[in-house]
Amino acid sequence: MSLSSIAAPLSALPRRALNLGGAAVCAALLACAYYMQFGMGLEPCPLCILQRLAVIALGLALLGAGVLGAEGRARIAWTGMIGLSAGGGLLVAGRHVWLQSLPPDQVPACGPGLDYLIDALPLFDALEEAFHGSGECARIDWTLLGLSLPVWTLMAFIVLGAVGLWNNLRVAPRRG
Predict the structure, then answer these.
(1) d(CA 24, CA 118)
(2) 121: DSSP letter
(3) Position 72 pLDDT exceeds 50
(4) pTM for the complete prediction?
(5) CA distance to 24, 53, 94, 123, per residue, from 65 (Å)
(6) Which neighbouring-strand residues pair with 29?
(7) Strands 147-148 and 143-144
(8) Residue 11 has pLDDT above 60, yes or no
(9) How do residues 32-53 score in pLDDT, each as one tens digit?
(10) What are the C-alpha distances in Å from 153 to residues 47, 80, 171?
(11) Structural domains present in the chain
């Protein structure tokens, strides 16, 4: 299966529809995360919360491009926001997957929660500390098909980011 065979069916869809579809996927990801937290009792670690923030940012960028339109200079701005939010999420999810792959003796010690870090430290210091992760971030509480939640989130950022960037950088077909 080639990349062009994947992109061909997507090319037929209007840019706006793909952006709104991506925003809907982000909303579904957040709904799943909140169900897992409140329905299943899985407490999110600091890296999980940062991933949620990246999903929110990506969803808002896709929603903005879908609702307000992504033509002309706005298209470049929306594409940049999509790329930044997907890239940021990719970095955080990648770090989380890496922490989960460490041998038990190399896992960092458990640290304070993100809410405490934000209260105790300046914002950028708190985010930097949260990004480093802690022992709780290395724990795997849930899997689907043998893959942890951060792996699924990483794949979602890859797919949503790639489709969002491609969709907003492509030349839309002219309607005649």
Answers:
(1) 30
(2) S
(3) yes
(4) 0.78
(5) 13, 18, 26, 28
(6) none
(7) antiparallel
(8) yes
(9) 999 998 998 888 888 888 899 9
(10) 11, 20, 29
(11) 26-169 (1.20.1550.10)
